[in-house]
Amino acid sequence: MRCVGIIPVRMAASRFPGKPLVRILGLTMLEHVYRRSRLCQALDEVIVATCDEAIRQAALAFGASVVMTSDRHERAMERVAEAATTIEADLVVLIQGDEPLVHPPMLEELIAPLLAEEAVQCTNLMLAVDEADARDPDQIKVACDLAGNALYMSREPLPTMRRGAAGPRWRQIGLIAFRKPFLLKLVSLPPTPLERAESVDMLRAIEHGCAVRMVPTRYVTYPVDEPDDVARVETLLQDDPWLAAYAPQAGSPSGGR
Fold first, then answer.
1. What Å distances lie between residue 235 and 86, 184, 239, 249, CA to CA?
2. For strand 150-154 and strand 141-144, is the pairing parallel, antiparallel, or unpaired?
3. pLDDT tens digits for 60-95?
4. Fewer CB within 10 Å, N- or C-terminus of the chain?
5. Residue ranges making up the domain that contains 115
6. Which alpha helices (H) appear in the chain, and where do they start and end?
7. Predicted pLDDT of residue 218
8. Bridge partners of 182?
9. Would residue 231 count as lying in a domain?
10. What domain count does the chain have?
């Protein structure tokens, strides 16, 4: 079974324009995501999907394959689906380009249910969070049914915090795997009200009655949503066990520049 990772990136992020090319310990964020993903042996290939020439040039410079896509996509999964139509793959893994702390074993965890259960069409990683992250609107929280499938995703706390603790609270991580036919079907469906309200891709699947299997992970990762997030990521990367495998000469912290 051929499994391909696709990193959807664009320069025009509303809160942090140009963030794929921000420097983190001497490398662009995109290069960190690409090189860490390439360390996962479960992926046969990793591709960058973008609509920006600056990103294409940067990706080619560090050896990545690039697929140019439309500049009209509103959702990362739509960009990934367009790129997927040009490649041979059974499984397509969406690897968000703002996840520079992605651990290669996380991708193996993500793919495992698709390899083990033919009925599973889509998987998404989730991480247990503390109360501060549960209240953070940049973190997408998820509530699951008893079978481990997503019931709902929100930027608000899930479940409600008014009645005290309700077991572990979870947030979605920007790593999602699809069987390719399911991905192409999903993006052909019309966008949904809750998807628009929360700005969460996977709500389109949930609202159309499709199961999204949530996969817990113990690996801690933080996305870069705003410039202030760069310093936290740099601090965590300095003690990261994977850094030496792809960037042994990584420089000093950039301070977000």
1. 38, 38, 7, 16
2. antiparallel
3. 999 999 999 999 998 999 999 999 999 999 999 999
4. C
5. 3-218
6. 29-38, 53-61, 76-84, 104-116, 131-135, 180-188, 193-198, 202-207, 229-238, 243-246
7. 94
8. none
9. no
10. 1
